[in-house]
């Protein structure tokens, strides 16, 4: 399985319906990420940036879960 396949599978596994937007916002506020760079809340318009955005979503969700976010869901 290629790196792109792994990223695609991990991204597809994110259950967007169960993400608590308040918890996501609190996480980003806590780490000081500017609003335009909050991957779990803002998708890029440019299709060329989608792969990097997917990777950032996976990394951000993993970081939230590592901090013990009770509503992030795996």
Layout of strands and helices, then pairs:
Blueprint: H1 3-12, H2 21-31, H3 50-66
Helix pairs in contact: 1-3
Explain what the structure shows.
- Helix 1 packs across helix 3.
- The protein has helices spanning 3-12, 21-31, 50-66.
- It is mostly helical.
- The model has no long low-confidence stretch (mean pLDDT 89).
- It is built from 3 helices and no strands.
- The two termini are 22 Å apart.
Gap between N and C termini = 22 Å
The coarse overall form would be: globular
Which segments are poorly predicted (pLDDT under 50) over 5 or more consecutive residues? none
Q: If you compute it from the alpha carbons, what radius of gyration comes out, rounded to the nearest whole angstrom?
A: 12 Å
Report the oligomer.
Answer: single chain
Going by helix content, strand content and strand pairing, the class is mainly alpha
**What is the β-strand count?**
0
Write down the secondary-structure element order: HHH
Biggest sheet layout: none
Helix content: 40-55%
Mean pLDDT: 89
Put simply, the count of helices is 3
Strand content: under 5%
């Amino acid at each position: 399985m290629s790196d792109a396949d792994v990223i695609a599978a991990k991204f597809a596994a994110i259950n967007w319906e169960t993400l608590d937007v308040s918890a996501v916002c609190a996480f980003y506020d806590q780490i000081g990420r500017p609003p335009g760079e909050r991957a779990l809340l803002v998708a890029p318009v440019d299709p060329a940036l989608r792969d990097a955005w997917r990777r950032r979503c996976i990394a951000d969700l993993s970081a939230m879960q590592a901090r013990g976010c009770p509503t992030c869901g795996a």
